[in-house]
Automatic annotation (TrEMBL), chain A:
GO terms for cellular component: cytoplasm. The gene is trpB. It comes from the Bacteria. Belongs to the TrpB family. GO terms for molecular function: tryptophan synthase activity. It holds the Pfam family PALP. Keywords: Amino-acid biosynthesis, Aromatic amino acid biosynthesis, Lyase, Pyridoxal phosphate, Tryptophan biosynthesis. It catalyses: (1S,2R)-1-C-(indol-3-yl)glycerol 3-phosphate + L-serine = D-glyceraldehyde 3-phosphate + L-tryptophan + H2O. Residues 64-387 form the Tryptophan synthase beta chain-like PALP domain. Its EC number is 4.2.1.20. This is Tryptophan synthase beta chain. Tetramer of two alpha and two beta chains.
Automatic annotation (TrEMBL), chain B:
Tetramer of two alpha and two beta chains. GO terms for cellular component: cytosol. HAMAP family: Trp_synth_alpha. This is Tryptophan synthase alpha chain.
Length: 405, 278
């Protein structure tokens, strides 16, 4: 790739929030003092053993960690190559990896004395996790969700409302995740005095990409220990889906300085990379949006383009800045899976393993179906099963019925 | 180096009055009408003209200005055409300062050095870029100063005394005080709070301070202008423009006058204010 190899892939970002040229703090002045406060609160919390102890307690007893590392025997047999392990993040309370990060941020919000929590959500998994922890800690919760996503992820909308959150359908722009994030930022600018913005992915202004990554790194840290226990060594490859990229970064980061581990991120190729898609690295270039410089889908004039994915959680025209840097350094290989490939993987995993995945990690499974057969039987491949598919059952059911008609 | 902005504020100071600053979106509702509207503004009483650079994701703007940007983009507006609009305006007016306001991505994609050179040639005097705080000064602010353009910074109610020096350090032309925490077009500016804030900023800088966000009527404009060196009105003008459009969002015979008439009445409000104490 086009930039020099660093001594370590795990030392970023610099003090201004940059991973190479990516990242930064591209926000309105109104928000700048809040972002600096958050950075300070996070630095303090990291140095406070009581913070980690309290968080570990909730991770164990409330979230249900550690999540299992499960040998997918029938999927392995079916594909006839690498030995496939699933990191079962879908078994966490609330049904996805999102809760790891939300717990951390809500505990920071409490430290900072903020009583009102806002969040953006795509598939609704981050929204549900946020609504859940706000209920648990008695905080007001407002979730912005694109009106298109409100339609296609109804089960999660209902869950959020049952948990006491207010879900605001966003009608601006493409009415998906990008617009939900714009609207959340507008809320934050308006309610700076009492509001904490709980960002759901490794994107946004510094320090969000870093703190979300740190809270999600428990996925990779556990995987390392668990693989050591069952196989006595490191895995040979990791695979995870990427919208903003938080489940992927959480799995990847602890392994970045283990050169024997191949790492694959899977973006959403929608209808295909020459048509409407959501693969920022495959089809985009560096630009500035939502507080950071990163790969974005845009036109020649720098206007942000509409993304498309069957999966609401991947339907975003950008990606976390650290992923952009890992792409340019060549440490992580970014692939993409189409809507149809993800649907096929969704069905395959359901039938072979009795696990209905969310449409998001179905994209990762789709690439495992390509990668695993080409690798030897002693190759250990870990795929992050970042969420469960209950929320997608109505949507996928309708699509499959439509196809058989 | 003196820009048209410096010259204009020096003249206004001599006349003992505050500036009326207008904001409209470039290319709204279409490039040709937009040029005619901008040309009509000085005669209607605008002392400084801010022109929005349309962007798909304007995260600090309310619904009116978001919609204006989308109308402009739909009509084919680009950053290059925005610079052509300024060039067109400069054919008849070499005195009224022009400030481009918007978000960084279109400029970053255009290329910072090329943009600054082309903006200077077109007759742009200053830039307000919402998502470039002082922490990102290397990106555009410092190159803009070197290119001879003013980089006008937003100060907000959350910019406390500790932070103000950093915000003001590389600011030139004027300081734009955002009178509310919030997006454009929301809330109403409170004149007592504004007067205290302006006084606080003036303890840190000799630059003129203009106040915007939440000013919609000649009365508010008058009251705000009496506490500051200028009052900025955007959303109210954009709304007047929108009300003049046909059902498909196209310009009508009333469009240019609708904006000019509101500009004239707001300008009268500002001119009725006593000059801000220096």
């Amino acid at each position: 790739m086009n930039i020099a190899k660093p001594n370590s892939y795990r030392s970023g970002p610099d003090e201004r929030g940059h991973f190479g040229i990516f990242g930064g703090r591209f926000v309105a002045e109104t928000l700048m003092p809040l972002i600096l406060d958050l950075e300070k609160a996070y630095t303090d919390a990291k140095a406070d053993p009581a913070f980690q102890t309290e968080m570990n307690g909730y991770l164990k007893h409330y979230v249900g960690r550690p999540s299992p590392l499960y040998f997918a025997e029938r999927l392995t047999e079916h594909l006839g190559g690498a030995k496939i392990y699933l990191k079962r993040e879908e078994l966490n309370h609330t049904g996805s990896h999102k809760v790891n990060n939300v717990l951390g941020q809500i505990m920071l919000a409490r430290r900072m004395g903020k009583k009102r929590i806002i969040a953006e959500t795509g598939a609704g998994q981050h929204g549900v996790a946020t609504a859940t922890l706000c209920a648990r800690f008695g905080l007001e919760c407002v979730v912005y969700m694109g009106a298109v996503d409100v339609e296609r992820q109804q089960p999660n909308v209902i869950r959020m409302e049952m948990l006491g959150a207010k879900v605001i359908p966003v009608q601006s722009g493409t009415r998906t995740l990008k617009d939900a994030m714009n609207e959340a930022l507008r809320d934050w600018v308006t309610n700076v005095h009492n509001t904490f913005y709980c960002i759901g992915t490794v994107a946004g202004p510094h320090p969000y990409p870093t703190l979300v990554r740190d809270f999600q790194s428990i996925i990779g840290n556990e995987t390392k220990v668990q693989m050591q226990e069952v196989e006595g060594r490191l895995p040979d490859s990791l695979v995870a889906c990427i919208g903003g990229g938080s489940n992927a970064m959480g799995l990847f980061h602890p392994f970045l300085d283990d050169p024997s581990v191949e790492i694959f991120g899977v973006e959403a190729a929608g209808h295909g990379l020459t048509q409407l898609h959501a693969a920022s690295i495959a089809g985009g270039r560096p630009g500035v949006l939502h507080g950071n410089r990163t790969y974005l889908l845009m036109d020649a004039d720098g206007q942000i383009q509409d993304a498309h994915s069957i999966s609401a959680g991947l339907d975003y025209p950008g990606i976390g800045p650290e992923h952009s840097w890992l792409h340019e350094t060549g440490r992580v290989t970014y692939l993409s899976a189409t809507d149809d490939e993800a649907l096929a993987a969704f069905q395959l995993l359901s039938r072979l393993e009795g696990i209905i995945p969310a449409l998001e990690p179905a994209h990762a499974i789709a690439k495992v179906m390509e990668l695993a057969p080409k690798r030897p039987r002693d190759h250990l491949m870990v795929v992050n099963l970042s969420g469960r598919g209950d929320k997608d059952v109505p949507q996928v059911g309708e699509i499959l019925r439509g196809k058989t008609k | 180096m003196t820009t048209r902005i410096d010259t204009r504020f020096a003249e206004l100071k001599k006349q003992g009055r505050s500036a009326f600053v207008t904001f409209l979106m470039a290319g709204d509702p279409d490039p040709a009408t937009s040029l005619e509207i901008v040309k009509a503004l000085p005669k209607a009483g605008a002392d400084v003209i801010e022109i929005g650079m349309p962007f798909t994701d304007p995260m600090a703007d309310g619904p009116s200005i978001q919609a204006a940007g989308l109308r402009a983009l739909k009509a084919g507006m680009t950053l290059k055409k925005t610079l052509e609009l300024v060039h067109g305006f400069r054919k008849d007016d070499n005195a009224t300062p022009i400030v481009l306001m918007g978000y960084y991505n279109p400029i970053y994609i255009y290329g910072v050095d090329k943009f600054l050179a082309d903006a200077k040639t077109a007759g742009v005097d200053g830039l307000i870029i919402v998502d470039l705080p002082p922490e990102e000064d290397d990106e555009l602010c410092l190159p803009a100063m070197k290119a001879g353009l003013n980089f006008i910074r937003l100060a907000t109610p959350t910019t406390d005394d500790k932070r103000l020096p950093a915000v003001l350090a590389n600011t030139s032309g004027f300081v734009y005080y955002v009178s509310i925490t919030g997006i454009t077009g929301a809330g109403a500016a409170d004149s007592t709070a504004v007067s205290e804030a302006v006084a606080r900023i003036k303890r840190h800088t000799k630059l003129p301070v203009c106040v915007g966000f939440g000013i919609r009527t000649p009365e508010t404009a008058r009251s705000i202008a009496s506490h500051a060196n200028g009052a900025v009105v955007g959303t109210a003008l954009v709304d007047a423009l929108r009300s003049s459009l046909d059902a498909e969002g196209r310009a009508t015979g009333k469009t240019i006058n609708a904006v000019a008439e509101l500009t004239a009445s707001l300008a009268e409000g500002v001119r009725g204010a006593r000059a801000a104490a220096e």
